[in-house]
Amino acid sequence: MNKRGANYGIDAPKLVLWFLLIGVAGLGLAAALACFQFSWRRFLIWPVACVGAEFLLQAGVMLWGSKVGKLHLRDKLIASIPWRGDEKVLDVGCGHGLMLIGAARQLRSGRAIGLDLWQKEDQAGNSREATLQNAEAENVADRVELRDGDARRMPFADSEFDVVLSSWALHNIYDRAGRDDAMREIARVLKPGGRMIIVDIRHAREYANVLRQAGFSDIQISGPNFLFVIPTLTLKANKLSAGGAKTGSR
Is there a single domain that holds both residue 83 and residue 171? Predict the structure, then answer.
């Protein structure tokens, strides 16, 4: 829970649970070995204890990333956009609304739309209801709209959005053809002169290649961020305006 009462979920909850269980089991086995009287136990205790501690540490880092780290990264990325306040924003795979609500805070007359399939295996407690509760807790419910839909076949018109966001979502499309389709859809619905920010733990360069094929040339990929142990990369891109200029979000 953050200071406003919103809950943005635990990412990869099954993986976090496995790390916790393995860590506890490793430390428990090390403690059990210490109780036995045999000459070579000292060769087992410390390696087993170290493995257990490592898994517990990884679980702790991932929990910190879900509850603290991703909020800090979100705020930094949202602040990098020169908002006017009247933008139409799309968050692809919005989950609990982390990026969606961050964008909605910047809007006055604009609208932030979240698209998701609401899969709970990728984020604990993922649901429309949870996202709406977060929007209400953050006092942006009047600027937020949720839609059910697949990133590979988005129910939106060409050039509909000033800003398109996506965070830790597209890698859950497991086949490359599907991810390519999702990136082409993101490029399609973004207005000329619009901005996109894609945050993910894999495939950033793959996403960039699809955008280049779609005519994007202003593409930046950040260095790695380790808030979920696996490196997170951020891709930023601006869609060329009709006249070919690299403009802001209009």
Answer: yes
Q: How far apart are CA 221 and CA 215, in angstroms?
A: 17
Split into its structural domains, the chain has a count of 2
Per-residue pLDDT, 242 = 55
Element of type H or E holding 91: strand 88-92
Q: pTM (2 decimals)?
A: 0.83
Same domain, residue pair 109 and 204: yes
Q: 51 and 77: one domain?
A: no
Range of the domain at 112: 72-238
Query: What residues does 165 pair with on adjacent strands?
Result: 91, 197
Q: What is the CATH number of the domain that holds 200?
A: 3.40.50.150
CA distance 227 to 64: 8
Burial of 5-39, coded b for 16+ CB within 10 Å and e otherwise, reads ebebbbbbbebbeebbebbeebbebbeebeeeeee
Ranges of residues in the chain with a pLDDT under 50 are 1-3, 243-250
| Predicted pLDDT of residue 34 | 83
pLDDT single digits (tens) 177-236 = 999 999 999 999 999 999 999 999 999 999 999 999 998 988 999 999 888 778 999 999
In a domain, 197, yes or no: yes
